[in-house]
Amino acid sequence: MKYLIAGLGNIGDEYKHTRHNIGFDVADAFAAKHKAAFNNDRLADVAECKWKGKTFIVIKPTTYMNLSGRAIKYWLDKEKIPVENLLVILDDLALPLEVIRLRPGGSDAGHNGLKSIQESLGTNQYPRLRFGVGNNYPKGRQVEFVLSKWKNTEEPVVQEKINKSTEIIENFASIGIARTMNECNKLTFLL
């Protein structure tokens, strides 16, 4: 069984380890945990790993956030992976920092990466792991906020959530989305 794990973010050093790039950080952590290395390939940096008889194709699209759908559609088609075996990992301003939410589908909620994926796939029914980044910013400063680095006080909880997210990816593939949602959607990470 094959799974496509797509961490969303923007390429370039100025975006590294920003709130908006948490998808890349989770993808990196998952690949590292399974001793897989990323290589630059068509529309994405790609790593492949096997775990408990399952194959994970892990991608970090190199298309920039608002064209993420192109990379995801390409790799789903190339690897012949059904959309229910796709897991998109992204930042979510609507969620406080102390939570993560796994969902089987839903609206893009104004997230340009999700908008692009929905357009490319022709559906909003694909699993996503929403990593709460909080919304502690002045009115009109949303862009600066999502492109900012984590505060020192936030780093421990971010690291804990990244580690938990790698487990969630494994559970998504091994026990299914429903059971994994029951386990992870009620977690609160303490700041």
From TrEMBL:
<feature type="binding site">
    <location>
        <position position="15"/>
    </location>
    <ligand>
        <name>tRNA</name>
    </ligand>
</feature>
<feature type="site" description="Stabilizes the basic form of H active site to accept a proton">
    <location>
        <position position="91"/>
    </location>
</feature>
<protein>
    <recommendedName>
        <fullName>Peptidyl-tRNA hydrolase</fullName>
        <ecNumber>3.1.1.29</ecNumber>
    </recommendedName>
</protein>
<feature type="binding site">
    <location>
        <position position="64"/>
    </location>
    <ligand>
        <name>tRNA</name>
    </ligand>
</feature>
<feature type="binding site">
    <location>
        <position position="112"/>
    </location>
    <ligand>
        <name>tRNA</name>
    </ligand>
</feature>
<comment type="similarity">
    <text>Belongs to the PTH family.</text>
</comment>
<keyword id="KW-0963">Cytoplasm</keyword>
<keyword id="KW-0820">tRNA-binding</keyword>
<keyword id="KW-0694">RNA-binding</keyword>
<comment type="function">
    <text>Hydrolyzes ribosome-free peptidyl-tRNAs (with 1 or more amino acids incorporated), which drop off the ribosome during protein synthesis, or as a result of ribosome stalling.</text>
</comment>
<keyword id="KW-0378">Hydrolase</keyword>
<dbReference type="InterPro" id="IPR018171">
    <property type="entry name" value="Pept_tRNA_hydro_CS"/>
</dbReference>
<feature type="site" description="Discriminates between blocked and unblocked aminoacyl-tRNA">
    <location>
        <position position="10"/>
    </location>
</feature>
<feature type="active site" description="Proton acceptor">
    <location>
        <position position="20"/>
    </location>
</feature>
<dbReference type="Pfam" id="PF01195">
    <property type="entry name" value="Pept_tRNA_hydro"/>
</dbReference>
<dbReference type="InterPro" id="IPR036416">
    <property type="entry name" value="Pept_tRNA_hydro_sf"/>
</dbReference>
<dbReference type="GO" id="GO:0004045">
    <property type="term" value="F:peptidyl-tRNA hydrolase activity"/>
</dbReference>
<comment type="function">
    <text>Catalyzes the release of premature peptidyl moieties from peptidyl-tRNA molecules trapped in stalled 50S ribosomal subunits, and thus maintains levels of free tRNAs and 50S ribosomes.</text>
</comment>
<comment type="subunit">
    <text>Monomer.</text>
</comment>
<dbReference type="InterPro" id="IPR001328">
    <property type="entry name" value="Pept_tRNA_hydro"/>
</dbReference>
<feature type="binding site">
    <location>
        <position position="66"/>
    </location>
    <ligand>
        <name>tRNA</name>
    </ligand>
</feature>
